Every structure is written in structure tokens, then in C-alpha cells.
Amino acid sequence: MNTQRRGALAALLAGAVFGALALPAAAADWPAQKPISYVVPFTVGGSTDVVGRVLAQKLGDRLHQSVIVENKPGAAGGIGATYVAKAPPDGYTLFGGTISTHAINASLYKNLKYDPVKDFEPVSLIAFLPNVLLVDPNLGVNSVADLIALLKRDPSKRTFASSGAGTSTHLAGELFAGMIGVPLTHVPYKGTPPAMVDVSSGAVTFMFDQMTAALPLLQTGKLKLLAVTTKDRIALAPEAPTMQEAGVPGFQMASWQAVYAPKGTPKPILDKLAAEIALILKEPDVQEKLGKTMGMELVGSTPEQLRDLMATEIPRWAEVVKKSGAKVE
User: Fold this and answer.
1) In the chain, what are the domain boundaries?
2) Three-class secondary structure of residue 124 per DSSP
């Protein structure tokens, strides 16, 4: 072997050794060291919680390590997001992010305690979710037009619930108020289930939320679906009109679910997680539970694709927040 080739080989080997040494010890044997925490920033039973528990079980099986779901609700996901933003970037803390935590909150909250871009590493876009307009079946309205008429004539009915200030369900209500020209009072909750309970009892007039979370109460007749917020009708409720069909032109939105890790988490871990999640979302039982049964449009992206989505969603929702005038301290 000539001197030049020996030198090149030595440089290559040195680079390989340096690369191995540069890889954090936590990444070298990840995830063998300890269980992984999957933080859900909303209450048990909501869409983010359902997604998190499905992924936790499946990831645990595939990675041969326990993945434990921790619910840390509050501040439209901000409490859980702040917790994860401060966690060690070692691959042992994951976050169930949403359109709220990683797009809307950036412009809605005046003093946000985390930065959705600077404090997190994108892992994978899990799914898009249709939102629906829900009311108490005993409210006496059978269409969006009926609801608008009620809100215009009866000030005592001008309330809407959401799963928290700053969530997509909150912004949907603000958009609706602006489009119909009726001032409405927002009633925020610490998650979807308690909000739906109060809407189903008539304590709050209406709410927008994901179809996934609404299904159980719709199936038992405790809630009534008036319309969907997507561009087209959805397979789970083909009889329900879109908001545009129901007489609110230009009203269109969909929520999304994603997985993140603390900033600085090694890229090999991020890529491994994204690859495993993409495979999980193709499994028949997951397709059945999250796709067919709950109406989610499953994706399973790369970290880069999720980063690109955020780059378009953050400014888009900033414009929505500006037009609606919504602000949260």
C-alpha cells in the first residue's frame, strides 16, 4: 500500500473513531438504559392521549423498552411542552405535539415559556384530524344556520368550549364568531373530555373538536354533529355538511398530531424513531383504530418533513390569530 493510500485510510479510520466518540453515550446504546417517557400535554381520553398510548405500546414492542405515557395538561399543552423543552436530550423523553403546541401557541400566547422551533427536534408527523362542530342534542338546533340564528337572538347562549386556551378548537370558535359577526365568550377547559361533558349537558352552547374525541358521545347520542371543518365531507360522517356547505364560506381547518424530542437529541435517535413510527402507522390494527375507526389521516413523516410543515403552519396561524384578535396572557 503506497504512502498516499495509507494516509487516506488512516484519515478515514481517524474520522470514524472521532465520529463514534462524538456520538453521545446515551445514543450509542439507546434505548437500553431506561424506560422512555412519552409526555401527552392534555388530559386522558383526548385525541393526543389516544395517539400517544397507541404509539407508546407499539414503540415499546419494537424498541424492546418500556414507553410510559405521562399526562401533563394545561395552558393549551404549554405545561407539558415546557417540561419536555427542559428535559435532557437523550432520547428518553418524547412529546405528543399538536397544531396548538407547535403552531398556534407561538403567536397566541404573549409570554410563551417555550419556543416550538428552538426548544424541540421534530420526529414525525403522525396524522391530520378533521374537526367538527358539536352541540347538545337538546339545544333545539338541527343545522349551523339554526345555531347562528340562536346565537344572534339569545345573548345567554353565546358561549363556546374548547380543550384549552390556544388550542385549534379555541381558534375555530374565534374564527366562527368573527365570520358570523356575533361576539362569543370562550370557556376553556384542561382537555377535551370535560369540555364535551359540559356541552352535552347544555352548560356551554357549542364547541369545535376533533372527530376522534367526539365519536363516543356522538354514538351514544349525547352530542349532535352539525358540520365538519374540512374542505370535503368525511367518511365517518358522510351526512354531515362542511362548514362551507352549511353557510359559512371560507371556514376550513384541520388539526394535526406529531412527535417531538428535546432540542439536541442525537439525529440517529430521531431517525430511528421516525422510521419505527412510519412502520407502526402502516400496521393493520393501527390503521383500523386510528384511521378507519377514528377518522385520522395517518402520515408517518421524516423529521425534515415535519419541520417543513411547521415552517408553513406557524405563520399561517399567526395570521389567523391576528385577524381573530385572540390573545392569551
Assistant:
1) 36-128+255-324, 130-246
2) strand
Instruction: Give the CATH number of domain 36-128+255-324.
Output: 3.40.190.150
The rounded distance, in Å, linking the Cα atoms of 306 and 269 is: 16
Phi then psi dihedrals of residue 229, to 5 deg: -95, 0
| CATH architecture group of domain 130-246 | 3-Layer(aba) Sandwich (3.40)
Q: What is the distance between the alpha carbons of residues 175 and 191, in angstroms, rounded to a whole number?
A: 20
Mean pLDDT of 137-150: 98
Q: What is the pLDDT of residues 45-95, one digit of tens each?
A: 888 999 999 999 999 999 999 999 999 998 889 999 999 999 999 999 999
Q: Which residue has the higher pLDDT, 105 or 17?
A: 105
How does pLDDT run across 284-327, given as a tens digit for each residue? 999 999 988 888 889 999 999 999 999 999 998 898 888 777 77
Q: Is the dihedral of CA 156, 161, 164, 170 positive or negative?
A: negative
Among residues 226, 207, 253, 234, which one has the least CA distance to residue 297? 234
Q: What residues contact residue 120 under an 8 Å CB cut-off, 6+ apart?
A: 81, 84, 85, 95, 97, 102, 114, 260, 261, 262, 263
Contact between 193 and 47 (Cβ < 8 Å) = no
Interatomic CA distance for residues 236 and 176, integer angstroms: 23
Residue 30 CB coordination number (10 Å): 22
CB 199 within 8 A of CB 135: yes
Asked if residues 90 and 24 have their Cβ atoms less than 8 Å apart, the reply is: yes
